[in-house]
């Protein structure tokens, strides 16, 4: 079981971040060389942002699903958190080339990936809503700052279209998490 206090979770996250600061370990982390790298980038960092957003006390408990549970995190025994990534097609190919340096064609393709937004967010939400979870969950849709230009105005301009082309379904809340700035925006 992966149960701990929120304080212990933040300590674990800080340790994982510290282990990824050298050029080699950072590159490996971006390429998801290990399962832990994937959990760190795709789940733990977004979970951390949601914990701050919800103002969860450091003494509360968090349990990490780590693909062994039907949820990504259980927070304070009452919040069930579902995490999904909003990624452009072929994102994994670009992500794996970043540590080696982007050639001009890859850089152009990566820049044009931003044109797929907010559509990929809408698709990610709709796929999760279609699953029809019976319990009360919060959905956190994760996006990279590469695609938001780390600009609140860009994200806020997407929200009306996201709301118009998706629904809340059975989720108690749907949040957009910009992983790079650790920011949360409420969609529903």
Word description of this protein:
The protein is an alpha/beta fold and 188 residues long. It has one domain (3-186). It is 47% helix and 18% strand. The protein has a 7-stranded mixed sheet, with helices on both faces. Strand 3 (73-75) and strand 4 form a beta hairpin. Helix 1 crosses helix 3. The radius of gyration is 17 Å and the shape is globular.
Brief characterization of the structure:
By secondary structure, this protein is an alpha/beta fold. It is 47% helix and 18% strand. Helix 1 packs across helix 3.
Layout of SSEs?
Blueprint: E1 3-5, H1 6-18, H2 23-30, H3 35-54, E2 61-64, E3 73-75, E4 79-85, H4 91-97, H5 104-113, H6 119-130, E5 137-143, H7 145-148, H8 152-165, E6 173-178, E7 183-186
Parallel strand pairs: 4-5, 5-6
Antiparallel strand pairs: 1-2, 2-3, 3-4, 6-7
Helix pairs in contact: 1-3
Q: What structural class should be given to the helix and strand makeup? A: alpha/beta
Topology as a string of helices (H) and strands (E): EHHHEEEHHHEHHEE
State the low-pLDDT regions, or none.
Answer: none
Average pLDDT, to the nearest integer? 88
Strand content: 15-25%
Which overall shape is indicated by the principal axes computed on the Cα atoms? Answer: globular
Helix content: 40-55%
Report the total helices: 8
Query: Spatial order of the strands in the main sheet?
Result: 1-2-3-4-5-6-7
Query: Could you tell me how far the N terminus lies from the C terminus, measured between alpha carbons in angstroms?
Result: 31 Å
Computed Rg: 17 Å
Q: Tell me the count of domains.
A: 1
> What composes the largest sheet?
7 strands, mixed
Q: How many beta-strand elements? A: 7
């Amino acid at each position: 079981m992966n149960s701990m206090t929120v304080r212990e979770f933040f300590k674990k996250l800080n340790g994982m971040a510290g282990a990824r600061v050298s050029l080699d370990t950072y590159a490996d982390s971006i390429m998801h060389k290990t399962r832990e790298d994937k959990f760190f980038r795709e789940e733990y960092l977004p979970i951390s942002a949601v914990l701050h957003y919800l103002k969860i006390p450091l003494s509360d408990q968090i349990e990490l699903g780590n693909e062994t549970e039907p949820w990504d995190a259980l927070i304070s025994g009452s919040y069930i958190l579902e995490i999904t990534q909003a990624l452009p097609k072929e994102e994994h190919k670009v992500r794996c080339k970043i540590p080696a340096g982007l050639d001009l064609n890859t850089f152009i393709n990566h820049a044009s990936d931003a044109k797929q937004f907010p559509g990929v967010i809408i698709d990610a939400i709709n796929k999760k809503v279609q699953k029809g979870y019976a319990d009360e969950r919060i959905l956190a849709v994760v996006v990279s700052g590469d695609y938001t230009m780390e600009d609140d105005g860009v994200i806020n301009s997407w929200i009306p279209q996201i709301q118009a082309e998706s629904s809340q379904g059975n989720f108690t809340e749907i949040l957009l998490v910009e992983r790079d700035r650790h920011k949360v925006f409420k969609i529903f």
